[in-house]
Every structure is written in structure tokens, then in C-alpha cells.
Design a protein that fits this description.
Blueprint (H helix, E strand, L loop, with lengths): L4 H13 L2 E7 L28 E6 L16 H6 L3 E2 H11 L6 E2 L2
Parallel strand pairs: 3-4
Antiparallel strand pairs: 1-2
Length: about 110
């Protein structure tokens, strides 16, 4: 509450991954791609609704895994598409960004 989505991205990146942000820019897909899209994916922490905002960021520091994360690190496009285990919404957004659906999507 009381933050812009960019301010939230800065705070969350530090809280959840230990990363400072040098730049935070909204990742803008072609018009209408994500507008009004509903992604059904049960929340692991019990929330009723999540609103997703996707940013392209330049980071400072090395990422660290927090209790809220599952995997963390720097990955190539090929690793993301072919190997990295991703939850549904993450796979959806990255698939649209890369133009190819990730192959290792997991439930819950």
C-alpha cells in the first residue's frame, strides 16, 4: 500500500533476492497481450488474488535465495526454456517474452 509498482519492484528485489536495482523499466508486450488476462494458479501462501507486473531490470549484487523463492540465479534463455522448473505464471510471462513456451512447468 502506498507504493508505485516500480517502488514495490525495488523493495521486493532487495527483500526477496538481496539485489539492488540500477534501472527498473516496465516490460511492455505488444498492445493487449496481457491486458485483462487472468492466470489461474493457486497461491502457495493463501492469497486470493495476485496482480502481476513484469519489469526488465538492471541489477547490482549477487542474488540470494529467500524463504519466498524456489530457485535463484542468472540463467541463459536456453536454460529458462529447456531446464529451469517454473511455476505457471512465470512460465507464461517468460514464454511470451521469449516467444517460446518453457518446457519444465510445475504445479503448485
Amino acid at each position: 500500500m502506498g507504493e508505485t509498482t516500480q517502488q514495490s519492484a525495488l523493495r521486493e528485489a532487495y527483500e526477496e533476492a538481496g539485489l539492488g536495482m540500477i534501472s527498473v523499466e516496465p516490460l511492455t508486450p505488444p498492445a493487449g497481450v496481457w491486458e485483462g488476462r487472468e492466470v489461474v494458479d493457486p497461491c502457495r501462501r493463501g492469497a486470493d488474488l495476485h496482480v502481476w507486473h513484469v519489469y526488465l531490470c538492471q541489477c547490482a549484487g549477487e542474488p540470494r535465495l529467500s524463504e519466498e523463492g524456489d530457485v535463484i540465479g542468472w540463467f541463459t534463455r536456453e536454460e529458462i526454456i529447456n531446464e529451469l522448473p517454473l511455476h505457471g505464471p512465470t512460465a507464461l510471462f517468460l514464454g511470451e517474452f521469449f516467444g517460446e513456451t518453457p518446457r519444465n512447468v510445475r504445479e503448485g
